[in-house]
Design goal:
five-stranded parallel sheet, two-stranded antiparallel sheet
């Protein structure tokens, strides 16, 4: 198999709102449109939430449900964890769009007969990400999405590449991504041809 893999965030998909943390500001406005104090409290807690969940749950490959499982959310009793998860996903969905330059690379790889897959160190689940990628015309058919929170392995350590290799067994592999360590250095350490995306 001739494989072309693509990082998702800031490579295939970009956010209309800019930096990832801006999602939390938009989410806070969605939840508390008329309560500035609550918005500010929510943003602060959401910024801390991944670190707190990592400490409390003793795990690094967090799912979004893990992030919203900690006691810090007791300060926001107006919403259940499920409602907060749905609101964050809706906010992400509204802000994610395809990077046209990378989309054209994906289409070129397919035209050359390469198998395409998508890889991300992320707390959002593969089903949700696949829906966005399909909506934006980046994923077709049954192309795979591999996410650290489901695989228990990360690109940043190189372990997620090992998981993908074991599953797809490529004879030739090229990877495209924006992160100098996770997408370039670790990929090259695994014998993958890595192309940095600015």
């Amino acid at each position: 198999m001739n494989l072309a893999s693509f990082d998702i965030f800031d490579t295939v998909l970009i956010r209309k709102c800019g930096k990832p943390g801006n999602i939390f500001h938009l989410l806070a406005h969605r939840l508390y449109p008329k309560q500035e104090g609550k918005r500010e409290d929510f943003i602060i807690q959401r910024m801390k939430a991944e670190g707190i969940a990592t400490q409390e749950l003793k795990k690094h490959d967090l799912r979004l449900s893990d992030i919203y499982s900690t006691t810090i959310w007791n300060s926001f009793p107006e919403y259940s964890p499920a409602q907060l998860i749905d609101a964050e996903k809706e906010t992400e969905s509204e802000n994610l769009i395809a990077n046209p330059a990378v989309k054209s690379i994906i289409e070129k790889c397919r035209a050359e007969g390469k198998t395409v897959c998508f890889i991300s160190d992320m707390y959002l689940d593969s089903e949700f990400l696949a829906q966005i990628l399909k909506r934006e015309g980046c994923l077709v058919g049954n192309e795979k999405v591999y996410v650290s929170c489901e695989e228990g392995a990360r690109k940043s350590t190189g372990a997620l590449y090992d998981k993908v290799r074991a599953h797809l067994n490529p004879t030739h592999w090229e990877h495209y991504g924006d992160h100098p360590v996770g997408d370039v250095k670790r990929a090259r350490e695994k014998g993958i041809i890595a192309t940095p995306i600015n």
